[in-house]
Design brief:
The protein is of the alpha/beta class. The chain has 10 helices and 13 strands. It has helices at about 30-35, 105-120, 135-150, 165-175, 190-195, 200-210, 245-250, 255-260, 280-285, 290-300, and strands at about 5-10, 15-20, 25-30, 50-55, 60-65, 70-75, 85-90, 90-95, 125, 155, 175-180, 220-225, 230-235. The strands form 3 sheets. A 6-stranded mixed sheet has the order 10-9-8-11-13-12, sandwiched between helices. Bound molecules: guanosine-5'-triphosphate, magnesium ion and zinc ion. Zinc ion binds near residues 264 and 269.
Length: about 300
């Protein structure tokens, strides 16, 4: 993972911290640290790299949270401006999508990817339930994989049920901190259990816990995979939370559009109706995919400045 002590679990006043040698210790916050934090309800989140101090009794204290390379946040309540950090220092997000049973739309995939870009979290697309797809769906899957790989997103088709694709996935997760997201029913738990059966009970519990809708913001945990690597599991990550984003920024989070922006005639081009728009030209030439452009329009049409990635 990395050379720093890393928070693997946070429950109220106590934190589990994994030391670089693999040992896990329990730590409390140093009083001073608590006061410093203003904008979030939790000063220390799962995934945080921390500096520990000890007292004479050998108790551990979190003295400092090292700068986060990225993090996922969600508003504590709808009315609050405070955010709750769900997880931090994530190497990879894996979005599990299915073309049927249930169908994951490209609109959902693209919203997720835009949010992940805004959070600076590299994302891999996992197309699960391959075993169920008929020829038409398989052709559709090939098209989708081509679209997303062209943009630079890693893709993998798999069947958690049959075990196909799991070796590749395990290899990608090795040595990394990952989160797994996606609609309910796409097979996230099945996938994780197939990778590491010893996690099965836990993952099931977290999912059930979520469905009861109780205290879902407070429970996050980083678990070690038997195949190597770490998985952060928190119910909130299913949807990925909220990101504050200005309309003018949205195109920046579509990498294939971002590469074209400097060629638009107008510096403030919205890529919707302006003449001399490089994005629309690329769309006409088939260099920007239609479904991606539709997702862009749909995001631009949202009123709220917070653009949630819905369930
Ligand atoms: N045919 C097929 N079914 C699968 C596959 N993966 C998962 N399933 C089934 O899909 C259903 C939902 O799987 P889960 O693993 O519970 O889905 P989940 O994403 O964890 O759902 P939530 O916990 O509600 O978010 C179960 O009945 C699984 O057996 C697969 O690759 N092929
Ligand atoms: Mg589940
Ligand atoms: Zn333009």
């Amino acid at each position: 993972m990395n050379q720093h002590p890393t928070v693997t679990r946070s429950t109220g006043q106590l934190y589990q911290v994994r030391l670089p040698d693999g040992q896990t210790v329990t730590a409390r916050l140093k009083g001073k640290l608590r006061l410093k934090e203003l904008k979030t309800t939790n000063p220390v989140a799962v995934g945080d790299w921390v500096r520990l101090e000890h007292d004479e009794a050998e108790s551990h204290f979190i003295a400092e949270v090292l700068p986060r390379k990225n993090y996922i946040i969600r508003r504590s309540t709808n009315l609050s401006h405070q955010g709750h950090v769900l997880a931090s220092n994530i190497d990879n997000a894996f979005l599990v999508a299915t073309l049927s049973h249930p169908r994951t739309t490209t609109a959902f995939i693209d919203r997720f990817l835009v949010t992940a870009e805004a959070y600076r979290i590299p994302t891999t697309l996992l197309f699960n339930k391959m075993d169920l797809y008929d020829e038409q769906e398989q052709a559709h899957l090939r098209e989708l994989v081509e679209v997303y790989e062209d943009i630079g997103y890693r893709c993998l088709a798999l069947s958690a049920l049959r075990g196909t694709g799991l070796e590749q996935l395990a290899q990608w997760m090795r040595g990394k901190v990952s989160v797994v997201s996606g609609h309910s029913g796409v097979g996230k738990s099945t996938l994780i259990n197939a990778l590491d059966p010893s996690l099965s009970l836990r993952v099931g519990e977290i999912s059930d816990y979520h469905h009861k809708g109780k205290h879902t913001t407070t429970f996050s945990e980083m678990v070690e995979l038997a195949t190597g690597g770490f998985l952060i599991d928190t119910p909130g990550i299913k949807g990925f939370g909220m990101v504050e984003m200005k309309k003018a920024e949205i195109a920046h989070y579509f990498p294939e559009m971002f590469a074209l922006l400097e060629h638009c005639r107008y510096g403030n081009c919205t890529h919707l109706h302006e003449p001399g728009c490089a994005v629309k030209d690329a769309l006409a030439e088939g260099l920007v995919s239609e479904s991606r452009y539709l997702s862009y329009i749909s995001l631009m049409e949202d009123d709220d400045k917070y653009r949630p990635v819905g369930y």
